Amino acid sequence: MLEGSGIPVEKRFVVNGQNFYYHNQQNPGTPIKDNVMVFYKFKNEENPDSNAHARRKCPRLSKDSKGNILFVGEDHIDHTPKDEALNIHIGNAFDVISERKQTDYKRVDTHLWEMEFEITLRNHKDSPITVEVNEPIGGDWEMLTSSYKYTKTAAWAAQFNVPVAANGTSLLKYRIRARW
Question: Which of 36, 43, 65, 94 is most buried, by CB atoms within 10 Å?
């Protein structure tokens, strides 16, 4: 059980793409829904055990004279040295939606393809958020166009941080060229 108050906690919304999205032409029609995972990130200032339970005061109950606490999720964590960051996956967001579709796929040469994707992010929350979108592109790739700035987080992966307004929608569009 982790307890503490006054600990700076960052709430992260994360979408992880799948490798198979980049190895063939996806079926047209209904977009693929990806889970939007929710993480709490904070610095380990002590040495917690291997199970973490995350609780927060429920805004709807905060006016309750009993000071009720709402259980929001739990995760198993590895032993984490003091002063290192912890990321606790507390579950999937039900009010943030991610849908992806492949809008273009063409073979340029024997081992060279171009693909274009659109990822629609819908935020049904009353506050703006940022969604971290991780794309495991693979192969020898280059980004040809992108509606949001990306970071090459590994030889085979790109990451986008997409802001989504309160009760709003954002559209991430990008085109890659990949060699396998």
Answer: 36
Beta bridge partners of 32: 100
Record the tokens describing residue 73, joined without a space. Answer: 């999720």
pLDDT in tens, 73-109: 565 666 667 777 778 888 999 999 999 999 999 999 9
Residue 115 near residue 105, CB atoms below 8 Å: yes
Strand, coil or helix: 20: helix
φ, ψ at 21 (rounded to 5°): -60, -25
Tokens 């085109």 locate to 175
pLDDT band at 33 (very low <50, low <70, confident <90, very high): very high
CB 175, CB 104: distance < 8 Å: yes
Paired residues of 112 in beta bridges? 109, 179
Kindly report the pTM of this predicted structure: 0.80
Neighbours of 99 (CB within 10 A): 14
